[in-house]
Structure formats: structure tokens, C-alpha cells
Amino acid sequence: MNPSIFEEKFQLIGKFKRSSSTSQGGQPEPWIPNEPSILNTDTQLIAEFLTKELSCPIIKDLYPHMYWVARKSGSHIDPLHDNLVKERSIKVTENPELHLAWYKKTIWIKPVPHCLFSHDFWMKHLAEPTQTQSVNNGASSRRHDAIGFIRSYAHLIRHESDFLLAQECNLLPKEGLSYIDFQQFVNPFRHILDQSVSPRYNYGQLRVTRLNWAVRMFQPEACKGKGWLNRLYYHQLHWNTEQFVEEYLATFVFIFATLSVILSAMQVILAARIGALGGSWVAFVDVSWGFSIAVIVLSIVMFLLLGGLVGWVFASQLGWSWWQQRKEKKRLKKEKKEKKKIQL
Fold it and tell me: Counting runs of H as helices and runs of E as strands, what totals does the chain give?
């Protein structure tokens, strides 16, 4: 495999002004693209920078359980224009853990670090490491993170409208970069298999609410020692009481209204029984009695139907997750057998 994945002639660095790798005098800049505080020669600082910009330790810890909360497919990523069709707003995040995470009408996407557009940077800092390098400094993990991250953009930007939208949302540089340039750069990443990327990018879009439950249930190591909130949330969605109330008010009102209707119906039944003993308005008492019973029965049926629907959806998703896990285990067993045959 090409150490930099793409050919040098397709690199994007230098095509846009802000991250040019050369100074005005034509000499190479002493820092990595668009990061003047990080020198090209400081390999340790560059490694820390790449880890901070691209790694997803929580997902790595959750990976054995991720099939319960997400579809295992690196291509399960909507193009940018599809997010607008689904009425999702695109929010910029610099947190790699939030890249491609979504909640209701919001999806978070991380802009591409400019150094990943440079062929020279890939050759020096993201080349395929030796076995010793991989064990000692995590070079292989950083490379797989970078490959998976750029591959995600190959799925996000499939049309020129996606490209223009990415520039509008500040995900890509705006000046000097064309759609054709970007497609030539990103096309080799589009054909890379899930086995060649980090565990995070074996999955595409992730629903934040499900990730929150996964964190609560499986308690990943990456969340420990960061405070009790980080052990309850993958990403906290409510930052004040008003947001929390707005989120759950409709549910509380629905339950309160339904219980009020049932209690009112029970009061009518009780009053109807008392009225029946008095012997007056017999027909009206009978109608009130029957209507009140019907209201209670319909309310209970409605609750059961809603509960059954939620239960059915939950059970079907668990069943699908279980099937996916079995499929994955069969695939791994088959690969293991094939490797043994090759060794023999």
C-alpha cells in the first residue's frame, strides 16, 4: 500500500492560502501545515497532536459492545446534502469523538486538519510503521485513525453540492480548492476496507443517545477518572434546567393528562353509582357509566399499544444487533481458518 495512500500530485496542500507549506520566499515552513506552534522536527509533539485530533478512546473501549448501539459499517454515512434533507443542522466540532455523531436535528462534523492534505506529512508522520514503532508509540493507531477520518469525508462529499456545503460550513478551506481537486485527493481512501482503519471508523454515523446508554452500561476505561458526569454521558446534551425541561415536558404532560382523564372517569363512575341508588336520571347514569368505562379501557389500550410499539422496536433492534454479532463472529472464524490453511 502506498505509505501516503494518495499520489503526491493529488495533494491539496498549497492549493489554498492559509495552510501553504512554503513561505513567501519559496522555502519550506518550519512547522506543520496550519499549526505554527508545532515544528516539523518535533515528532513527539506531532504524535500528541495527531492523537488529540483524531483518536476516539471511548469508542475503542466500547468497540466489543458497539454492535448493540450502532450498525457496523464504515460506509453508513449520509452525504452532507442528505443531512439537510433530513432537516439536520451541521455543527462544527474539534472533538474527534463527536465526529459524525448526531442527535435529533443536529449532526457534528470535525473539519479536516490541514496536515492531512500534505503528501510529505503522510510520508514522514503517517507512513506504515514497523512492528517496533507500532508497539512503542502507537504509530499504527494514528495512521489508521487518519485513514478512517479521511475516508469518512469520501462518504460525506459525494457530489459537488456536498463539497460546496462543506466549504460553507468551514469543514474544508474555501479559497483555491476545487471539487475536482478534492475528489482526486480523496478517491483512493474511498476503496479502503474497514480492516485498514481504526475501530471508530468501522462504524459511520452514531446516535448520541445510544452512546450515552452504552457508556452507562459498559463503563469504558477512557471515561473513568474524569468525574461522575463522564461516566453517565458520552456527550452531555442538556447544559441547563430549561433544556432538560423542554426535552421531557411533553412526556410529563402526556402522562399527567392521561392519568387525569382516567381519574376523572373513575369519579364519574363513582357518582353514577350513587346516582343509580337514588333512582333518578337512570338513562343518563347508564350512559355516563358506560362512557367512563370506555375511556378507562381506551386509555389502558393506548398505553399498551405505545409500550408494545416501543418494546417491538427495541426487541427488533436487539435482534438485529445479535444477528450482526453472529455474522461478525462467523466472518472472523472463516478468516482464521483461511489463515491457518495458508500457513500450512
Answer: 11, 6
Global pTM value: 0.78
Kindly state the cell numbers that stand for 195.
480492516
Q: What is the pLDDT of residues 46-65, one digit of tens each?
A: 999 999 999 999 999 999 88
Q: For the segment 253-302, what is each residue's pLDDT rounded down to a tens digit?
A: 877 787 787 778 777 777 766 665 555 666 766 777 777 788 888 888 88
Q: Is the dihedral of CA 137, 143, 145, 146 positive or negative?
A: positive
- Listed residue (139, 138, 150) closest to 74, CA to CA: 150
Q: What is the pLDDT of residue 254?
A: 76
For residue 101, which phi and psi values (nearest 5 degrees)?
-85, 145
- Whether the Cβ atoms of residue 42 and residue 48 lie closer than 8 Å to each other: no
C-alpha cell read off for 277: 341508588
Per residue in 118-161, pLDDT tens?
Answer: 999 999 999 887 665 555 568 889 999 999 999 999 999 999 99
- Phi, psi at 287, each rounded to 5°: -65, -45
Q: Which of 72, 75, 74 is nearest to 324 (CA)?
A: 72
**What letters, b where the CB count within 10 A reaches 16 and e where it falls short, cover 165-195?**
bbbeeebbbeeebebebbbbbbebbeebebe
Q: Are strands 106-109 and 101-103 parallel, antiparallel or unpaired?
A: antiparallel
| Residue (of 32, 41, 39) closest to 13 by Cα position | 32
CA dihedral 115, 121, 123, 127 (to 10 degrees): -50
| Contact assessment for residue 150 and residue 189, using Cβ atoms and an 8 Å cutoff | yes
**Whole-angstrom distance, CA of residue 227 vs CA of residue 54:** 23
Alpha-carbon 172 to chain mean position: 20
Angle at 275 between CA 273 and CA 277, to 5 degrees: 75
Instruction: List CB contacts of 11: < 8 A, sequence separation 6 or more.
Output: 117, 118, 119, 120, 185
